[in-house]
Amino acid sequence: MRIALGVEYDGTAFCGWQTQPGGGSVQDALEAALAKIAGQPVGVVCAGRTDAGVHATGQVVHFDAPVVRPLTAWVRGVNTFLPEAVSLRWAQPVADDFHARFSAFGRRYRYLLLNRPERPGVGHGRVGWDYHPLDLERMQQAAAQLVGEHDFSAFRAAGCQAKTPVKLMREASVYRLGELIVFEFEASAFLHHMVRNLVGSLVYIGQGREAVGWMSELLAMKDRRVAAPTFSAAGLYLVGVRYEAHWGLPEPATSMPIELEGALPR
């Protein structure tokens, strides 16, 4: 039986999602915990690989269960063997042709940026930080230029393995919650480091270092070398993956998790 899982994790202590020879990844931790319940090795496939230090509240994975277990065993049972920074939210049987990555038609990322003179304390590792006063309206106007189908080569990491840099951006918005500036991006798919590179360039515009129209110029130039540096991984969250309704998966909970609401400065 193929089973899909909803996963959340604090990526601070992990070397990223993807399995590593020496362990230390979120995938390594999850597969080890699943093996405890299955009694044999289990491999998982995720909707979107995240880098070291990147978090997720809405990651989706699938695996082929080698044994029959109640769904509660694939959630509460597996959680017993997971590190505290990783938790399964739900498990759902799916058709054999479901694929966590290739069946998805959209992914949503959120970037949390602390904008104040002092660096984060409680939010260390969970928010990015910029001490310059940022002009929200300028960043909002620049973000609006990202919506639609574009070649995002200017925001693509050198080692990106995506077949094409052309992606459909369905939403790109920026808003403020007290001392936090929140960046929301939803697209058909994302390139490696794309969100962190977008945030870096939007911050440059918010600082007044570049004009609002610079974002459109970067899209047209398709040259990673002329855009801003890659921003910190600390504030990046994969908050939702979207699938067609016929797969029967829970809708992604893209609102701010209550644990973040209470821990982060407002």
Keyphrases for this structure?
single chain; 266 residues; alpha+beta; Alpha-Beta Plaits; 10-stranded mixed β-sheet; 6 helices; 10 strands; PsdUridine_synth_TruA
What does this structure look like?
It is globular and about 60 Å long. The longest helix is centred in the C-terminal third of the chain and has 14 residues, at 194-207. A hairpin with a 2-residue loop joins strand 8 and strand 9. Helix 1 (26-38) packs across helix 2 and helix 3 (136-144) crosses helix 4 (194-207). With 266 residues, it is an alpha+beta fold. Strands 1, 2, 3, 4, 5, 6, 7, 8, 9 and 10 form a ten-stranded mixed sheet that branches. The protein has six helices and ten strands, in the order βαββαβββαβββααβα. The protein has two domains: 2-103, Alpha-Beta Plaits (2-Layer Sandwich); 106-238, Alpha-Beta Plaits, CATH 3.30.70.660. The protein has helices at residues 26-38, 71-81, 136-144, 194-207, 214-221, 258-263, and strands at 2-9, 45-46, 55-64, 86-94, 106-114, 128-129, 148-151, 166-177, 180-187, 236-242. It starts with a strand and ends with a helix. The model has no long low-confidence stretch (mean pLDDT 94).
